[in-house]
Design a protein that fits this description.
380 residues; alpha/beta; Rossmann fold; 2 domains; four-stranded antiparallel sheet; 11 strands; 16% strand; globular; SAM-dependent_MTases_sf
């Protein structure tokens, strides 16, 4: 399929959008965080600033969207969060069944608001959008792409059953980022669905899985070696990264990775990690650009606003996203030439592809000004 427009819920600074734009797919994101919106603006990404709950598939700026994507906030589903999401998992799965049965939405919303952490219910928003596109807009999304932390896989499996009942072909599972050329070990629960065009399947790995102590040359000859931090960072010396987190909760036993290995999972605390070389010589910590590169954002991506570390840590690695988008759309896997386009972020390149021709917002007068944020919060 050739999409008209992809709407990205909880779009953050643009991981999915960056990948889509480089593939020639127009995007518009829904995001409420001021910092992420600042980055998106400076990157020239079309953005509706607001709460995903306040919008739906018929909203004017993405009523033509035929691809739905999103990564709901993961705080309540992660070890680093409160754990409310895990404890509420059975409730969330029950809500999926009730939504598919088309029970009264207002009643469901009232019950969601009473959960231990009301953010947990945000994981259900993509399903609401998908069902409303079917029932209200009468124009279902042709493809759906969702990602979250591994603990959310049971929710995606419930989504898969629901979407299959609506006529979609669906696949979901856990993907390891280093197996798609991301210089970082990170696991994500991914769901892709397509309404027409045959059976859908998650992308096959292109690189070997990282195993501590096992050289990257060891493994299947059909897969490339995993990529290292020194493959993507322009530091002229070997170094080690000492994690901000203690192993097993012991602050004296912090994780350590060599520059000749993939990074550990990039989190919002990445700028607290120490970097040392030689005999524990302290080196400067990661810059915004370097942290972004470990997530495979372009080296010149214009990180802006507050909490840049959190923006980077919460984002989808664009290189992984490019593989997932191609699989969801039924395209062949991205070529190395396409993947290399993620190395830089050219403003002129994205201006034509980032802006739907009939969307209700302005083109920037110059590449550096970005695209005007949308939504009632900014006056229209």
């Amino acid at each position: 399929m050739q999409p008209v427009l992809m709407v990205d819920l909880f779009a953050g600074p643009g991981g999915l959008d960056v990948a889509a734009e480089k593939l020639g797919v127009k995007t518009v994101g829904v995001e409420w965080d001021d910092g992420a919106c600042a980055t998106r603006r400076d990157a020239g990404l079309a953005t509706v600033k607001g709460n995903v709950r306040d919008y739906g598939p018929s909203y004017r700026d993405f009523s033509d969207a035929d691809v739905l994507a999103g990564g709901p906030p993961c705080q309540t589903f992660t070890v680093a969060g409160t754990g409310a999401g895990r404890r509420a998992l059975d409730d969330v799965l029950g809500f999926v069944k009730r939504m598919v049965a088309r029970e009264d939405r207002k009643q469901i919303d009232r019950e969601l608001s009473k959960m231990e952490d009301e953010r947990t219910g945000l994981v259900l928003e993509p399903l609401r959008w998908a069902l409303q596109a079917i029932d209200d807009r009468r124009s279902p999304y042709q493809a759906i792409i969702l990602e979250q932390v591994p603990a959310v896989l049971p929710v995606w499996e419930a989504y898969a059953a629901a979407l299959e009942n609506e006529g979609y072909s669906v696949d979901c599972g856990i993907l390891r980022t280093e197996q798609y050329g991301v210089p970082q070990t990170r696991k994500r629960a991914v769901l892709i669905a397509r309404l027409n065009g045959g059976k859908v399947a998650l992308p096959l790995p292109t690189h070997r899985a990282y195993r501590k102590g096992v050289p990257r040359q060891v493994g299947s000859n059909e897969l490339q070696p995993w990529r290292t931090m020194e493959d993507v960072l322009d530091r002229r010396y070997e170094f080690s990264v000492i994690s901000n987190y203690g192993t097993g909760g012991d602050p004296e036993a912090r994780g350590r990775r060599s520059s000749k290995e993939p990074s550990a999972t990039v989190t919002g605390k990445i700028f607290r990690n120490r970097i040392v070389s030689g005999k524990n010589i302290e080196r400067r910590r990661f810059s915004f650009s370097e942290a972004g590169r470990l997530q495979t954002f372009p080296a010149d991506y214009p990180w802006s606003g507050r909490d840049v570390g959190q923006q980077i840590g919460n984002a989808v690695p664009p290189r992984l996203a490019m593989h997932v988008i191609c699989a969801a759309l039924g395209w062949v896997p991205p070529t190395e030439d396409l993947l290399q386009r993620l190395e830089t972020w050219g403003s002129e390149e994205i201006l034509e592809s980032a802006v739907p021709s009939d969307a209700n917002f302005d083109r920037p007068d110059t590449p550096s000004t970005g695209i005007r944020l949308l939504g009632a919060a900014l006056g229209g």
